């Protein structure tokens, strides 16, 4: 299943400037999602991080992975209309700098969902190279 930006907005509550995924290329509700984010030089964050050496902050890469996982989770009928919140971030590792012009491929697999708490594993890549890996704990509100 693929989703464009309009369909993504029907599932997660994020909006500009905090909607950090542009498209979902693969979706298995309750199991996994693969999304993409096109990083552009026109983003406000690059005015301050860092002006002469633009680098996408790692926290925004983790947030983009979390939003990808939220699409997989909140596309389940029982969670429709809910919000997924961070419960924890573990073992976040950053391996490569992300710059304007890069396309992030964001993959999240949901490993466990029990009641309103769950665990997912995320991997972000650019051109096939690992950028970030992380374990995400989430709560559904």
TrEMBL record:
It is an enzyme of class 4 (lyase). GO terms for biological process: fatty acid biosynthetic process; lipid A biosynthetic process. The active site is at residue 49. It is found in: Cytoplasm. InterPro entries: FabA_FabZ (IPR013114), FabZ (IPR010084), HotDog_dom_sf (IPR029069). Involved in unsaturated fatty acids biosynthesis. Catalyzes the dehydration of short chain beta-hydroxyacyl-ACPs and long chain saturated and unsaturated beta-hydroxyacyl-ACPs. This is 3-hydroxyacyl-[acyl-carrier-protein] dehydratase FabZ. The gene is fabZ.
């Amino acid at each position: 299943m693929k989703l464009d930006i309009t369909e993504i907005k029907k599932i997660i509550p994020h909006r500009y400037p905090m909607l950090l995924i542009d498209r979902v290329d693969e979706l298995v509700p309750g199991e996994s999602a693969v999304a993409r984010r096109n990083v552009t030089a026109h983003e406000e964050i690059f005015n301050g991080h860092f002006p002469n050496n633009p680098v996408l902050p790692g926290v925004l890469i983790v947030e983009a992975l979390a939003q990808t996982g939220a699409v997989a989770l909140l596309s389940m009928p029982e969670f429709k209309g809910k919000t997924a919140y961070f419960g924890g971030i573990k073992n976040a590792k950053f391996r490569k700098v992300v710059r304007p012009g890069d396309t992030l491929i964001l993959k999240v697999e949901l490993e466990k969902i029990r009641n309103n708490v769950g665990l997912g594993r995320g991997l972000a890549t650019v051109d096939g190279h690992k950028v970030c890996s992380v374990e995400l704990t989430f709560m559904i509100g």
